Every structure is written in C-alpha cells, then in structure tokens.
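Let's study a protein:

___
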Amino acid sequence: MRNIRRLRRAFVATATGALLLSGLGAAASASAAEISGGKLTSGKETTAKIEKGGDTVSYTFVAEKGDHVTFSTKTSEWKGGQDNVGMFLYVPYTANGKTTYVLADFWSVKNGKTALYDFTPTMNGTLKLTVMAIDPKTTGTTTFTYAGDVDKGTLKENTATASETTVPGQNIVHYFKAVAKDKAHISLDITDANLGTNGKAVGYLYTPDGTLADTVAINNAPTFYDFTPTLDGYWKFVVDPTGSAVGKISLTLATDLKMGQLATNKAVTAKIANKGSRANFGVYGEKGEELPIKVSATNWGTGGSAFLFMFSATDKLEGWCWLQNAAKTCSFYPSATGAYKLVLDPELGATGSATIQRTT
C-alpha cells in the first residue's frame, strides 16, 4: 500500500523575501552546484538526479493565476545521508527593479512513499521547483510528474463529454454558460465514472464570480446534480479525484425538453434520456374548471416513477400528480384563467418516457 501525502494549497503565499525555513541556509551553503533541469512539461514524467552531495536540481514552469497544478511523486531512491529530500517551491519577487526567487512552500519526498502536492497560484509568472537534500551527503533520484488540470472548455448542451486524468492530483475542469432570467433548469449528468478500485471524486460547482455554490459526491457509478442557475455568466464544474485516484468520467450538460403547447386530444411523447432532466409543456386553463391530462403510456424503468407538476406563469405550484409505470389521468384545477406550465419530472434520476394529452 502506498503512503500518500497530499497537501492542498489554495494559494501560493505572497513572497516577502525572507527565508524562515530552519536548516535551509546550511544546506544551500553546502551546495556544490545548482543543476538546471530545464522547463517542466505538463504530464511528462521527470527524474531529478543528484550524483554529488550538496548539489541541487532546479526546474521552472509557467503558472497562471487561478490554474490549479499538481506534483505527483512516483518513486524516490536516496542514500548516503538521509532517505528523503525536500521539494522547494519558489515564486518570483521584484524589488527595486530586480527580480529574484523566494521560498513560498516546501514538502518532502521519501524512499518507499509517494508524495502528492497541489496548489492554485494566485499570480502569473515563471515559478521554480528545487530538489534539495538537507544532508549534504545524500545522493539519489526522485521521479515525479508536474501536471496542469484537464481543461474541457465549454460544455455543449446535451452532448456527452469524456475526459481522463492520468496524474494523481489532476482535476477536470468544465464550463457552461447560464442566463439567470431564463430560469432554465439544467442537470450535470455523469453518465460514467471509472476512477480505479474504490476511487472517488468530489465535484465542485462554482458561480461565475468564483464562489463555491455546492459539492457533488462522485463514486464509480453514474450520478447527477440538477439545479436552476441564478447568476448570469460562465459557471465552472471541477471534478477533483480524492487521494491518488485517476481515471475517466463522462459528463453531459443536460437541458430540459421543450415540448411546446399541448393541443386538445393530441398525444405528445416526451423521452428523457439524461438523469435530472425534465420535460416542459405549455397548457391553457380556465379558473376552477377541471383540466384533465391523460397519461396513456409511462415507463421509468423497474421501480421508477415521475411527477407531473403544474405551475402558474409566476411559477406558483398549482398541483401535482404521481406517475408510475401505468396509464393514469391527472386532474388539475387552475386558480385563474390563463397560461400554465406542466413539468414532467422523473424521480431520483430516472430516465424514460411518457405520452400525455389534454382531453378537453
């Protein structure tokens, strides 16, 4: 079993120019050379090698504000002094027109253990990662991977989007646009999830201004999250695998079906394919008079069911009817004469179909 050390960092602290890490100064002064490992490439495995005690190996990578990154250690083989080394993260600091690097954070990697460090930069620029042994007699290697998140861009409505993480600590980022005044109910339908044995993830839903709106538990099974956006702009849904989990998911931004106005004695079939989706119908009703809706066929799978709700033009609930897998007639009594909306809403993520018609 691998021991995993994961450090969630919401930010890289603003550099002050002061290094307060005990022992770091001694290690740095004993260094024979700082070896350049070059620029890190996202998703590419890298082996840091120290052959001469006291040497350090440094790498650079470009960070963008708000773009989460991870460092996942695969193996470490250190000897001669200690069985571990430090991974030191530096950020650029400019004072009096001169830019230098100062320490922002650090973590350790040890023989026989894996370390996972991830954070979200609060600044743009080129950052530096230095592999350094505190004991100057220590030599050996650490193999790690630097990776940015899997960015799937803006989701296309009612189309499955597949994605995969390959590096522990990677997230999957999705965006979708919403217009609050439309009051358009949507569902984030995770139709497939395979995150390895006992793998799990958490879905984080963010509003357009970056505020966390809600979380969704994701296991190795289909699930969904439905809601009605209340803010205009691009929302973000981030899938964050827990621990060292990696794998695949498939996500669909499912919108409700617009079935149009019901005509008397004309049957209309709504087929709902995505969990959390609904079907909307328009209907006209007269105050106090029965408005019968015949459901001639309904199928929501074994044990499945749905509700048929009627709402006024101001979204006031006027009545409801429970639909199982059998024909039924639902009677509604409008509180005023005018236009109403019928909403076919499957329970607990059921999918299927229903054929309905207005009989008078």
